[in-house]
Amino acid sequence: MSAAVLAPGFADPVSDAQATFRAALHAMAHPGRVMEAGVGLAPPAPLFPATAAIALALLDMDTPLWLDVAADTDEVRGWFAFHCGCPVTGDAAEAAFVIVAAPGVSTGFGDFPSGSDEAPERAATLIVQAARFRPGQGRLLSGPGIDGASLLQVDGVPEAFWAWRGGQEGAFPRGADVLFTAGFALCALPRTTIVSGAEG
Question: At 31, which CATH number?
């Protein structure tokens, strides 16, 4: 077993997982608001600390995980097996969670489960790694949890993602929820959020 597989997870598994869960929940309740997670974590590349923290807090043996080509390495698979015990699936349609470490080269966002009117909870949650967040500029976000509207630019995420996301609007309660990460930062784009405009 390699050193990467044995790299530590949370220093305090209970309190750190709870803090990460609260940060993710707060981000979901307030789309576009940037939170912090993963301080102290050093996961195997190309995972960001915030990505790893979300995984440690939310994944377990009952949450099949799909990894994009950038994240699908032996070290990453071993790290998840050791710390989360989650199965890694090669079938996007089976995924409960998805990690897109390199969105610029990823395709097929529409392949992931979006739930159904009867069982919307069966939609996948996407964790998409970005270059950085720039609140106050970029795309216009509106909907539940946002006071009027807010602006957020997510660098490093291609137009293909936004086209896929735009195609989900109007399908509620179906649709995937998205957590963006950038280093130790995270923010959320729930299925209820309406996105308009383009990043400059």
Answer: 3.40.50.11310
